[in-house]
Amino acid sequence: MSSSILDAIDRIVAGNRVYAQQTSEQDPNAFKEWNKGQSPEVLWIGCADSRVPETTVCNCKPGEIFVHRNIANCVPADDISSASVVEYAVTHLKVKKVVVCGHTKCGGANAALADADLGQTLNTWLHPVRELRRKHKTELDKLPDDDARSLRVAELNVQQSLEVLRLHPAVKRAINERGLSLHGMIYDIGAGQLRLLEASGVKKTNGLWSPN
């Protein structure tokens, strides 16, 4: 095993010890409480990008957000992994909000701008995002550069994921029976800020979703 891998693992283990000690000093009962169970109010579906750790960027504690992350925060209708997370969070944990969060500088969105061969698995996974690019080609071609196009693809992908979620049986039932709400967001890596794209009942403006 290379020294760089060992160094990375050593940093992780050492960091965990610091975290455990500092957390216990700040709240001696924290781990005891978390050990009792979880009751998060939010299901967060985000990208696996290492720069977008949801608990950190939302300044939340363990137990506050139930999380599912994958490449480009996709929610394919036929993906049993995301579907099972959604069903567990909505039916059993009874979360009150579901968030789909994309982000700027997304590698998946960037890859979707072209048709380069990424390997069989990634080609299959990103196919729906590439289809979004093809569907919205006229709009995307009018944007000034690839950064703007990538951001727009990320926004469209969040909206598409929300549409898939609305068709999930558990989500439909929870919306009707207890007011579950769905929300789309974009995280700006360069600014460290979240931007709301869509929430239940808001209006669509200039092709984007806005609470205003």
Automatic annotation (TrEMBL):
<dbReference type="Pfam" id="PF00484">
    <property type="entry name" value="Pro_CA"/>
</dbReference>
<dbReference type="InterPro" id="IPR001765">
    <property type="entry name" value="Carbonic_anhydrase"/>
</dbReference>
<keyword id="KW-0479">Metal-binding</keyword>
<feature type="binding site">
    <location>
        <position position="103"/>
    </location>
    <ligand>
        <name>Zn(2+)</name>
    </ligand>
</feature>
<feature type="binding site">
    <location>
        <position position="106"/>
    </location>
    <ligand>
        <name>Zn(2+)</name>
    </ligand>
</feature>
<dbReference type="GO" id="GO:0015976">
    <property type="term" value="P:carbon utilization"/>
</dbReference>
<dbReference type="InterPro" id="IPR036874">
    <property type="entry name" value="Carbonic_anhydrase_sf"/>
</dbReference>
<dbReference type="GO" id="GO:0004089">
    <property type="term" value="F:carbonate dehydratase activity"/>
</dbReference>
<dbReference type="GO" id="GO:0071244">
    <property type="term" value="P:cellular response to carbon dioxide"/>
</dbReference>
<dbReference type="GO" id="GO:0008270">
    <property type="term" value="F:zinc ion binding"/>
</dbReference>
<comment type="function">
    <text>Reversible hydration of carbon dioxide.</text>
</comment>
<keyword id="KW-0862">Zinc</keyword>
<comment type="similarity">
    <text>Belongs to the beta-class carbonic anhydrase family.</text>
</comment>
<feature type="binding site">
    <location>
        <position position="47"/>
    </location>
    <ligand>
        <name>Zn(2+)</name>
    </ligand>
</feature>
<dbReference type="GO" id="GO:0005737">
    <property type="term" value="C:cytoplasm"/>
</dbReference>
<dbReference type="InterPro" id="IPR015892">
    <property type="entry name" value="Carbonic_anhydrase_CS"/>
</dbReference>
<protein>
    <recommendedName>
        <fullName>Carbonic anhydrase</fullName>
        <ecNumber>4.2.1.1</ecNumber>
    </recommendedName>
</protein>
<keyword id="KW-0456">Lyase</keyword>
<dbReference type="GO" id="GO:0034599">
    <property type="term" value="P:cellular response to oxidative stress"/>
</dbReference>
<feature type="binding site">
    <location>
        <position position="49"/>
    </location>
    <ligand>
        <name>Zn(2+)</name>
    </ligand>
</feature>
